[in-house]
Amino acid sequence: MIKCWFPNRSKRNAAGNTHCNVLGTSPSIMASTDLPITTAIDYAERIHQVHSDASSSRSKKESGYVSKISELTGIVSATREAFIQRVDSEDSAPENSEFKLPTRRSLFIVIGGNALFQLSFFVIVSSASLYAEMLGGSATFSGLTIGIPTVCSGFALIFITRLDGGQYNMAMNLSYVAMVLGNILYALAYQAHFLYLILIGRMVSGFGFISFLYSKRYCSDPRIVGTRRRTTLASWLVVGQGFGFTAGPFLGGVLYKIGFPNPIFNGVTSPGWIMALVWVMFWGLHNLIFKDVDPRPLERPIEMTAGQEPAPCPHHHISPAQWGVIVCMCYYSMTCFFILGSWEANIPVFTSETMGYSPYKAGNFIALGGLCSFPFLLLNVWQARRIQDRVTLAAGTSMGFLGLLLMLVLLVTSKVTFGSLFVCWFLIALGFNLASTCTLSLLSKQLPDEWNGRVSMAIQYSNYTGRVTGAVLGGAGVKMGMVNYIGVQMAVVGLGGVMYLTLWRQLKAKTG
User: Where does the signal sequence lie (predicted)?
Assistant: First the structure.
């Protein structure tokens, strides 16, 4: 029996049979006893078809909604991915540009550590001659104690650079150990009453001064520093250099003035004890915040079949003009530290002979010249992004040469006073510190990146040569005659000027 629901009214056909207006199944059902079986089957099929059509249309609508939602979701996802890629590309762009820089913490360790190394180098300048005399040495011996660390440092670099793997942590940790031990040995020489323990302590400290090379190499490393930021970082290193030769002699003079009447901790040994403590603390700070670069990839041998030929290795040909630039920059690097080192070693001896200065006054005199030049060195950090390296080199060297020329006139006319000597020292300190900012950075901009390690070594050995010879010359300046002493320095600078004028066009490099 088929049940039908008549919600409104029923219709009869010509035969008098009642047809149901089927809309669905409902509890309100009427029975039709006279309904033919075929008609009932038709109605059943019709009901099934209506349900199927309704379900299919509903499914189509739902699938349409789902497809639209999926489409919108895809658009949003694509937009999000595009945005993220754009932001990531913006974040990573500086890493591949000429303006990339290391992390600030690592830069603080490198630049701040360089300033402390400079401080350790110069802190003994004001009292070294008196310390040597107390133990039976001469002024020339004191000049040797100032300059000898660089000889040991240059020797150590031959082996350390072969083992560092292109990284910095190992070498810098070795530097800290050497600085702690060397300063302690230097301080113990007075108690032991052994003159050569001063020299031994400074030689051990020399192994710590290998960090001078690694500071320069870090600030010109193409993996972490862009070409337009290398002179800027080199200028910061020179600011640290200015801090060292300003604060070092001043601190040494103050410690000598205080005296500390103690055979272990006194006016001449206290710089060693204090610097040893400072290095212990800085060593710990380094291991907390410094982030080293990745090691160089190791070259693995490649197995080749009989028919294969090895691929040619890339070879960068260095032109004769580039070799000339390399020689010129190494010579200027030597010249800058030759002049600075000789004056720093000579001022305590010369002022003691002519003006009766104590180590305290001589240290203050050296520090005053550095202090007055310090603002100009800071200004150079800002100007380095706008001025070519060759212009900075010419300006600094000319200023230093002017100081030498003025000093020669004062010596010949016997009119050396505090004011006139200070003007000469200020011009020399500012000029040659300024010139030293651009030697390595200029080479790193002109030569291939893989040459960075080689030119860093060449520049550092030039620095060491200048420091050693300059310190010895400064200690012996009074004995050889001050006019001859200044004449030697002017000849060295003059030869560099000839090289500079010859290679003027080849010295052009990017700013920054």
Answer: none
